[in-house]
Design brief:
mainly alpha; two-stranded antiparallel sheet
């Protein structure tokens, strides 16, 4: 593929992914969580219990900012703290039952919006093309 086409594809794909992400965020229950809180819950849900420092590094924020985010989630009963298993100076945060319910509701709302959009706006052939493209997009991700 000539360089100009690769550049155009990168621009178009980046814009499409960004727009899709905005729509998925908008489909989430409004007022339930801030984008940063959703990111923290998602990270803990997929990666397991985490420290403030690890969450701050992963989300590219200062530990002080992450403390505020995690504190708000803990106050709402969404996260729970426990001693770090190997470092007594630290604590780790994990999802509570309420946290699992909240993250489940957010993910279900996103899934429902996307499934409805796929069914309503694309033909069967277009959905097949998108299925192939999804596999290609996964290949772009670092291992």
């Amino acid at each position: 593929m000539p360089e100009k086409n690769v550049e155009r594809l990168a621009t178009d794909l980046g814009a499409a992914v960004a727009q899709l992400m905005r729509h998925l965020r908008a489909a989430s229950p409004q007022g339930e969580l801030t984008p940063t809180q959703r990111a923290v819950l998602s990270r803990i849900h997929t990666g397991g219990p985490a420290t403030i420092a690890a969450l701050a590094r992963a989300e590219l924020v200062r530990p002080q900012s992450m403390r505020l985010t995690v504190g708000a989630l803990e106050e709402r009963g969404i996260l729970d703290r426990s001693p770090h298993p190997t470092d007594g100076r630290q604590v780790v945060f994990s999802l509570t039952e309420e946290g699992r319910r909240v993250i489940g509701a957010v993910r279900q709302a996103k899934h429902n919006w996307l499934a409805e959009a796929l069914a309503d706006r694309l033909t069967a052939e277009e959905r097949q093309t998108l299925e192939t493209a999804a596999g290609l997009i996964r290949r772009l991700m670092p291992e």
